[in-house]
Design the sequence.
C-alpha cells in the first residue's frame, strides 16, 4: 500500500491481482491476418441502433465501401473489410446466441489491401463537429471491448466541459496485449488521434495512463512527446480493474465519478488507446474501420500472437490459422475476467473483439462445488466500488431487486468479476448481478 | 477442426483457487498444536474429550443432513472445527457423555437449526458450551491440574461418568488462574500463563501455541487479524486503566490477556467468519464490544470467566453492525448510515 502511494498520487480502493499471463504475447509484433474465404458481418457490432444495409445481394463491393450506414445518432456505418461479392444477406449467429442480420461477403481471389477512401478530415482545419462526424463516418466504436459509438462518447453535453482527455492504455485484463503492441507500433497514430480528440472535446490536457507492466511502451511514448505538449504519460501500479473508466479517473485525477454519472461529470473523457490510434490512422484519409488488432492466446493456442484481423473473419477460420489443441474446452472473446464464452465457432470477429483466449480442459474449473456464503468478506475487500457483493448475492437469492438497486447500489456494478474471482464458496456472483440488473432494467421499462 | 464440445461459463473465467474447504482445513491445522498440547498436558482425559467432541459434531452433522435429505456436508471440514473448538473449551476431565451432548447441541441448535454452514448467527461451538454450562454448572467448573504423573496411565473417573449421571468430584481438581483470582485474590505468573503451565479448559492454557496458530491463519490470509487484535487491545487497555487506578483491587492487564479462554476465544472463535462483521470498522467495533464485555464480566460479574458470553453477544450484534457500518460506495456521498 505504502509503495503504491509513493509511486503514484492516488489509487482506487480494493481491486485484485490475478496472474497477468501477458509475457507470451507482449513481445510479438502485430502480424497481418489473411482474408478468410468468407467474411460474415453482423450489422449490430456496437451498442445502439444496428447499421442499415445499403447494398444488395450479388453486388460487388470495394474494400472500404460502406455496406451499411449509420441508422440515427447512436449508430455507426459498417465498411467492407475486403473487396468482393455480397453472397447473401441473412441471419448470422452472434456471441450472445441471438441471430442478427448480417452480410456474407466473398472476397475476390486476388484481393489487395487497397482501400476506398472517403472525406479526409484535416485535424488543423476541421471543426469539433466535423471531427465527431468523421469519427462516426469511420465507424469507430470503443475497441477496448465496450463497442460504444465513440462519437457519442466524445460529444460534450450542453453545460458541461471537458478539461482532461484520458487515454486508456491500462489493459488490465490478463492475457491481452493488443493495447501494449499498438502503443509500441503505432505511436504516430496515437499522437495524431489525441490531437483529433483534444480538438473534438476541447480538453486542455491529455494523460496517457499505462500500467507498470508496460513500462517500455510508456518510455517509448514519453520519448516522442514535445516538452511543451499538453500530454503526459502516467505509469501506475498493476491492479485489476484499473482499466475501468471510473477506476482510471480516480487513479489519475483523484476524483470519483458520481454514482450513476459519467466521466464528463468530473470534466474528463476516457478513450481507449487502440481507439485513439484508429482515429489517428483513419481520419486523415477518411477511411472506415476494416480490421483491428486482436491478441490470440491461452494455453490451447499454438501460434499465439497479436494479429491484425479483418472485421467479419469467422472465429473458426481464425482458430484454424493459429492452430489449437485437440482438447480445447473454452474459448473466450475478450479477456478471461470480463470476456464472453463462445458457444459457436461460426460467429465472427467484430469491432469490439479485443482478444481471443483459448483454455484447455486443465484450465477450466469444471463443476467446482458451490458452498453457501460464509461471509468471509473477501468480495467486499475486492470490489473496486466498495459494494457488498456478499449481501447483494443473498438479496439476489431472495429476489429483493429493489433493495439491491436502491440500498446497495447494484446498478453501479460494471461486472468486473473481482468478487467472483476471490469467492471461496465459488458463488457465481457476477451472474447473479447481471441477471438482477436486467430484471431491474426491464421493470423500469414496464413501469 | 472437428466438431468440438465447448464449455460455456459466465465471466470471470479465472478464480483465485481458494475454496471453503481449503480455509476450513487450514483452520483445523492451525488448531492442532493447541489440541496436541492439551493432550500432552492433561493426558488421555483431554484426548478422549476432544475425540468425543469432534466425533459427536461430525456424526450429528451427517445424520441431520441425511434426515433433511441433503447431501452430507461433513466434507467441508466445518463440523470438525466446531467439534475441536467445543472440546478445547471444556475442562479436560469433562464427562464424555456430556461432551457428546454438547456436540449434538452445537451442531443441531447452533448450526443446523439456522440453516447450516454460512447461516449460523452464533459460533456453534459456543452455543454447545453455553448449554452445557447452564445444564452442568459443577462438571464444567471441575478442573484438573495439568502434567500429573499418571495422566497417560489412568483415566480420571469423571471422564467416564455413566450417562445422565453427575461426576463425583475428587480432590485433585485445581482452581484456574481466573477463579483463583476471583475467589481468593491470587494472581498467577504471566510466564506460566503464556506457556500453559496452569489448569483450565483443555485448549485454553497455552497462549503461545494459540497465537502461533492464529499467526499461521493470518499469513495464509484465512483469518481477519483485526478481530483478535481489536479484542486483545481492548481488554489490555480497559483492564490496564483499571489496574492503573487501583492495582491492589484489579488484576494486571497481562494477567487479563493471558488467563482463561481469552486467547482461544479471540483467535479461533470470535474470528468465525460467518458470525463476525465484514467491514474494517465493523470488525473493530465488534472486537471492542467483546473486549469490554470480557473485562466487565470477569471483574464485576458473578463468573470468573466471561469470554464465551462476550463472544456470543458479539455474534448477536454482528448483523446489526454490518447494517450500520458499511463501506462508502464509490461515487456516493457520505451518508449518516455509512462510515
Sequence:
Amino acid at each position: 500500500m505504502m509503495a503504491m502511494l509513493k509511486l503514484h498520487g492516488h489509487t482506487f480502493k480494493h481491486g485484485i491481482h490475478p496472474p497477468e499471463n501477458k509475457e507470451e504475447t507482449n513481445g510479438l509484433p502485430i502480424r497481418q491476418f489473411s482474408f478468410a474465404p468468407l467474411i460474415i458481418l453482423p450489422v449490430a457490432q456496437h451498442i445502439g441502433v444496428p447499421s442499415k444495409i445499403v447494398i444488395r445481394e450479388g453486388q460487388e463491393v470495394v474494400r472500404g465501401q460502406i455496406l451499411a450506414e449509420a441508422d440515427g445518432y447512436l449508430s455507426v456505418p459498417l465498411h467492407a473489410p475486403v473487396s468482393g461479392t455480397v453472397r447473401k444477406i441473412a441471419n448470422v449467429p452472434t456471441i450472445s446466441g441471438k441471430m442478427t442480420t448480417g452480410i456474407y461477403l466473398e472476397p475476390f481471389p486476388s484481393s489487395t489491401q487497397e482501400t476506398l477512401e472517403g472525406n479526409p478530415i484535416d485535424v488543423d482545419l476541421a471543426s469539433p463537429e466535423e471531427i465527431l462526424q468523421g469519427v462516426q463516418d469511420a465507424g469507430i466504436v470503443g475497441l477496448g471491448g465496450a463497442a460504444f459509438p465513440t462519437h457519442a462518447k466524445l460529444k460534450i453535453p450542453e453545460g458541461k466541459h471537458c478539461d482532461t482527455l484520458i487515454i486508456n492504455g491500462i489493459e488490465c485484463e490478463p492475457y491481452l496485449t493488443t493495447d501494449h503492441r499498438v502503443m509500441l507500433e503505432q505511436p504516430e497514430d496515437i499522437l495524431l488521434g489525441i490531437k483529433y480528440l483534444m480538438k473534438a472535446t476541447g480538453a486542455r490536457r491529455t494523460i496517457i495512463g499505462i500500467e507498470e507492466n508496460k513500462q517500455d511502451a510508456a518510455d517509448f511514448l514519453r520519448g516522442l512527446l514535445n516538452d511543451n505538449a499538453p500530454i503526459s504519460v502516467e505509469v501506475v501500479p498493476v491492479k485489476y480493474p484499473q482499466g475501468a473508466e471510473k477506476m482510471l479517473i480516480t487513479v489519475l485525477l483523484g476524483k470519483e465519478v458520481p454514482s450513476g454519472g459519467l466521466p464528463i461529470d468530473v470534466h474528463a473523457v476516457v478513450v481507449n488507446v487502440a481507439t485513439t490510434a484508429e482515429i489517428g490512422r483513419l481520419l486523415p484519409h477518411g477511411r472506415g474501420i476494416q480490421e483491428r488488432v486482436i491478441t490470440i492466446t491461452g494455453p490451447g493456442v499454438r501460434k499465439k500472437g497479436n494479429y491484425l484481423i479483418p472485421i467479419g473473419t469467422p472465429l473458426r477460420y481464425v482458430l484454424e490459422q493459429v492452430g489449437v489443441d485437440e482438447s480445447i474446452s473454452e474459448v473466450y472473446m475478450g479477456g478471461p475476467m470480463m470476456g464472453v464464452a463462445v458457444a459457436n465457432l461460426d460467429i465472427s470477429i467484430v469491432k469490439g473483439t479485443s482478444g481471443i483466449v483459448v483454455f484447455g480442459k486443465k484450465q477450466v474449473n469444471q463443476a467446482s462445488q458451490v458452498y453457501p456464503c460464509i461471509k468471509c468478506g473477501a468480495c467486499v475487500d475486492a470490489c473496486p466500488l466498495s459494494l457488498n457483493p456478499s449481501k447483494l448475492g443473498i438479496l439476489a437469492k431472495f429476489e429483493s431487486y429493489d433493495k439491491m438497486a436502491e440500498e446497495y447500489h447494484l446498478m453501479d456494478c460494471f461486472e468486473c468479476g473481482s468478487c467472483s474471482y476471490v469467492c471461496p464458496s465459488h458463488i457465481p456472483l457476477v451472474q447473479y448481478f447481471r441477471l438482477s440488473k436486467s430484471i431491474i432494467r426491464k421493470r423500469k421499462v414496464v413501469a | 477442426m472437428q466438431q468440438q464440445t465447448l464449455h460455456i461459463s459466465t465471466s470471470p473465467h479465472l478464480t483465485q483457487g481458494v475454496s471453503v474447504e481449503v480455509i476450513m482445513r487450514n483452520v483445523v491445522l492451525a488448531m492442532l498444536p493447541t489440541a496436541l498440547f492439551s493432550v500432552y498436558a492433561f493426558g488421555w482425559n483431554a484426548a478422549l474429550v476432544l475425540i468425543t467432541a469432534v466425533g459427536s459434531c461430525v456424526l450429528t452433522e451427517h445424520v441431520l443432513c441425511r434426515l433433511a435429505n441433503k447431501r452430507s456436508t461433513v466434507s467441508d471440514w466445518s463440523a470438525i472445527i466446531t467439534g475441536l473448538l467445543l472440546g478445547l473449551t471444556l475442562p479436560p476431565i469433562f464427562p464424555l457423555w456430556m461432551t457428546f451432548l454438547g456436540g449434538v447441541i452445537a451442531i443441531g441448535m447452533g448450526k443446523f437449526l439456522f440453516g447450516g454452514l454460512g447461516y449460523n448467527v452464533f459460533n456453534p461451538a459456543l452455543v454447545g458450551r453455553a448449554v452445557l454450562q447452564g445444564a452442568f454448572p459443577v462438571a464444567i467448573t471441575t478442573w484438573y491440574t495439568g502434567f500429573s504423573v499418571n495422566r497417560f496411565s489412568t483415566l480420571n473417573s469423571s471422564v467416564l461418568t455413566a450417562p445422565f449421571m453427575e461426576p463425583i468430584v475428587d480432590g485433585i481438581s485445581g482452581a484456574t488462574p481466573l477463579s483463583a483470582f476471583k475467589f481468593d485474590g491470587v494472581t498467577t505468573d504471566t510466564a506460566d500463563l503464556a506457556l500453559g503451565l496452569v489448569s483450565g479448559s483443555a485448549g485454553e492454557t497455552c497462549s503461545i501455541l494459540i497465537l502461533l496458530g492464529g499467526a499461521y491463519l493470518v499469513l495464509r490470509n484465512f483469518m481477519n487479524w483485526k478481530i483478535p487484535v481489536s479484542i486483545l487491545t481492548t481488554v489490555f487497555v480497559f483492564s490496564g486503566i483499571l489496574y492503573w487506578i487501583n492495582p491492589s483491587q484489579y488484576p494486571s492487564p497481562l494477567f487479563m490477556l493471558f488467563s482463561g479462554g481469552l486467547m482461544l476465544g479471540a483467535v479461533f472463535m470470535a474470528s468465525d467468519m460467518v458470525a463476525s462483521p465484514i467491514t474494517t470498522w465493523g470488525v473493530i467495533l465488534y472486537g471492542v464490544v467483546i473486549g469490554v464485555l470480557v473485562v466487565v464480566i470477569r471483574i464485576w460479574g458473578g463468573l470468573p470467566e466471561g469470554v464465551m458470553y462476550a463472544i456470543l453477544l458479539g455474534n448477536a450484534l454482528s448483523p446489526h453492525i454490518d447494517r450500520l457500518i458499511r463501506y462508502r460506495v464509490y461515487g456516493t456521498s457520505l451518508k449518516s448510515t455509512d462510515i
About this structure: DSSP finds 13 helices and no strands in chain B. Confidence is low (pLDDT under 50) at residues 335-339 of chain B. Residues 7 and 13 of chain B are 11 Å apart (CA to CA). Chain B has two domains: 8-174, 176-339.
